[in-house]
Amino acid sequence: MHILFIMFLLSTIFSISDAQTRLQNTAPLDMQGDIGMQMVAGIGDYLQKLTSEIAAKRSADWKKLAANPANWKQAVVAKREKLEELLGMVDPLAKPEMHFDSWLSANGRPDTVCAMGVGYTVHSVRWNVTDGLTGCGLLLLPAKRPVGIVIALPDCDWSPEEYCGLSPGVNPNQHLPRILAQNGFVVLVPRLIDRKDNFSGIPGVRMTNQPHREFVYRAAFLMGRTIIAYECSKVLTAIDWLKQNYPGLKIGVSGCGEGGLVALYSSALDTRINSTLVSGYIQPRESLWQEPIYRNVFGLLNEFGDAELLSMIGPRRVVVEAGGYPEIAGPPAPHDGRSGAAPGALSRPNPESLVAEVERGRRLASSNGGDVIFVTDGDGPNSLRAVSAFASAIDDQDPMAPRRMKIFAENL
């Protein structure tokens, strides 16, 4: 009897009309299909809209800065500090010190030369960057008096040996370090962390298919740092040593693919860099979420796109080359029990968006006397026209005249 009474009472309570129980400005949930997928799609649409709004606001803010040339220099100093903060460049840089690897030569004496080319020698080197971080690569020294200094950053999937022509894998026409050394430049070629997954994980515990860059990025993110910060720090500490040992010489930084990313950020941060060559990287960043996760920088698009970074390099020279974009379909496929890599692809941007981004950077840079040269001819990175324009700003000839680069055929 008691049970029947309770059931009657409950039916009375829940029979109250919808008009009395419905919250104001609400309606019953009557969506059809997969509600979870619809929610995710809605979130994506909202974030795309927000990204477009942020891009428009950022562009307007930088236009205001560019409209006041008197305050531009001071504003860019503040922007550099903000960029360092976003990247997580907070660790003190080491004192400049370069270590030359050596071994016994044919005559039984220690030697640091690991290869020789027409008019230059090649040395394997290491240098301190921050506490616990060391840079390594190849240093090419011309036989004659140096005319300038270049840090040549390959795409991360090219080793310094491949980029210099010591090992196969890179088109000989794109051996930029060799060409520069033959023309009298001191050239340092750092090794960048690649996209393979050989060492991603903890042996005996779990290995993943995350590219090495992603594996480092994930750990760095938790500590407020980025892989971009680590590799820019390699460049900045190398500059410290090169400027100390070759006083009076101008310095340039070039890069293609992932090396182009590091070159762009390094030059935006360090005013000691006189000339910059960026190949295969510049494009609008509003689709950064579709790129590999290791390119992510928290809060970046609120302040910076590629055009804004280009403008920060002015009034120094920067050459943007349309060729050399890496084509990456995604991370290594799951294999041998390895999985967990984030999706993300790299491809060449459409020409219209590339031109628009470069022109936007050129307009911003022009307010500060910026010198942005856009090279669209050539079928790969390091075309002769781009390299000549880049090199002419860091040797002792007229910086407005393209340097006549001499090309030597050789077998190292």
Can you tag this structure with a few keywords?
alpha/beta; two-stranded antiparallel ribbon
Brief synopsis:
The protein is built from 13 helices and 14 strands. By secondary structure, it is α/β, with parallel strands linked by helices. Helix 8 (227-245) packs across helix 9, helix 9 packs across helix 11 and helix 11 (306-313) runs parallel beside helix 12.
Written overview of the protein:
α8 (227-245) packs across α9. By secondary structure, this protein is of the alpha/beta class. It is built from 13 helices and 14 strands. Strands 1, 4, 5, 6, 7, 8, 11, 12, 13 and 14 form a 10-stranded mixed sheet that branches. The chain has a two-stranded antiparallel ribbon with strand order 2-3.
Q: Which helices and strands, and how do they pair?
A:
Blueprint: H1 2-14, H2 18-21, H3 35-66, H4 69-87, E1 98-100, E2 103-104, E3 110-111, E4 113-117, E5 120-130, E6 133-142, E7 148-153, H5 160-164, H6 176-182, E8 185-190, E9 201-202, E10 206-207, H7 212-222, H8 227-245, E11 251-256, H9 258-269, E12 275-279, H10 300-303, H11 306-313, E13 317-321, H12 351-366, E14 371-375, H13 384-391
Parallel strand pairs: 7-8, 7-11, 11-12, 12-13, 13-14
Antiparallel strand pairs: 1-5, 2-3, 4-5, 5-6, 6-8, 9-10
